[in-house]
Amino acid sequence: MFLPKSLLAVCVAALSVPALAAPETFAIDTDHTHPAFEFPHMGISVWRGLFGKTTGTITLDRQAKTGAVDIQVDTGTIAFAHEKMDEHAVSDQWFNVAKFPTATYQGTIKFKRGTPASVDGQLTLLGVTKPLTLKINSFKCIEHAYYKREACGADAEGELNRADFGLTKGAEGEAGKVRLRIQVEALKQ
After folding, report:
1. What letter would DSSP give residue 7?
2. Hey, where are the domains in the chain?
3. Count of CB atoms within 10 A of residue 76's CB?
């Protein structure tokens, strides 16, 4: 039995093209993802806090070397290990959690030498949206020992001026600079 030459050529070509990998979606592991931040306090020390609940997804297309993040942070879970500061942070003087219960971050993952290296995104905080680039310091994926599926983790950092988002009280000069340190883990869906 003979196949027409054109059909044979199509079959050979189809077998020689590598399968294109589809983008993969990972759900944020809320137990292992805690965005932290630090900022100067009265010029004499550095205060550090973190948010206890973060949700969202990360999409990776390793073949195309791109990806996306879509993150929601529960601003009511802010903690400084200082009761009065925690109360102040959720009040309308700072994060105004009653009016703005979440902060969001959406962005595009940029790869360098085959590995996620940064995220160019938009942070929405207190109803204000501004660009924010995060540098990815480390990124690794493994087979999760408990869940028996792929898990990825990263350490990222960035900087912003809190006055840009309306957090102006005591934000003059260096006091307004906030350094973000974000640990993130996510499970493949």
Report:
1. H
2. 20-188
3. 16
> What is the spatial distance between Cα 97 and Cα 79, in angstroms, rounded to a whole number?
13
Q: What is the mean pLDDT of residues 7-27?
A: 59
| pLDDT one-digit tens code per residue, 102-142 | 999 999 999 999 999 999 999 999 999 999 999 999 999 99
Query: What residues form DSSP beta bridges with 39?
Result: 47
Residue 182's identity, in one-letter code, is: I
Contacts of 86 (CB under 8 A, 6+ apart): 78, 79, 80
Flag the least confident range among 19-28, 84-93, 104-113, 146-155: 19-28
Q: Which two tokens stand for residue 117?
A: 């290296």
- What's the Cα-to-Cα distance from 11 to each of 3, 4, 26, 68, rounded to whole Å? 10, 11, 34, 35
166 alpha-carbon distance from chain centroid = 22
> Which range has the worst mean pLDDT, 66-80, 113-127, 165-179?
165-179
CA distances 156 to 33, 153, 180, Å, are 11, 10, 8
Question: Pick from 18, 88, 58: which is nearest to 154 by CA?
Answer: 58
The architecture of the domain spanning 20-188 is Beta Barrel (2.40)
